[in-house]
Design a protein that fits this description.
Helices cover 79% and strands 0% of the residues. It is an all-alpha fold.
Length: 193
Amino acid sequence: MGTKGNINRQRIVEAADRLFYVRGYNQTSFSDISDATGLPRGNFYYYFKTKEDILDAVVESRVESFSQMLDACMQATSDPYGRLQAFVSMPLQSEQVLQYGCPIGTLSAELGKAQSEHDSRVHMTAVFDLLRHWCVDQFVALGVSAARADQLAMDLLARMQGVVLLASVYNDRAFLQRASRDIQAWLETVIKH
């Protein structure tokens, strides 16, 4: 695929990513993506045979995006506790989280209800697995056993997903900020025990 082909493919993925986040996967059509990119719908089939193929590319893009965010946490400090604090603060950095929720949580919830041959849930676990394993690594670096670190990582992800969901439902930045501080306090408590 040439440079123009790569650019067009990337435009499709970026538009689909944005639309899946804002509207939802099931509510986004090929025509919506075509309108957003300005590319004729027929051109899509050169890059993606099905909507599920576009979904796969969007999930890959989100894994890369979250991987870059975790890299930024790693580069910000050498302290694993500081890295976890930076991770917990990530939703506070996004203006869209109040309006649309978590980009992986909302898509995962939508796809989790789908019963298709294309098992999209497997793809969404890739994003959560990335976050989970990264958190486990931070807890282990703090001296927590691997088994306990996995429990804490799951607890942390669950708390964050719940906070983002409720902050989005109520469009409540003050709640998001307070709840993020509560998660930070919880982190401090579990690290000390």
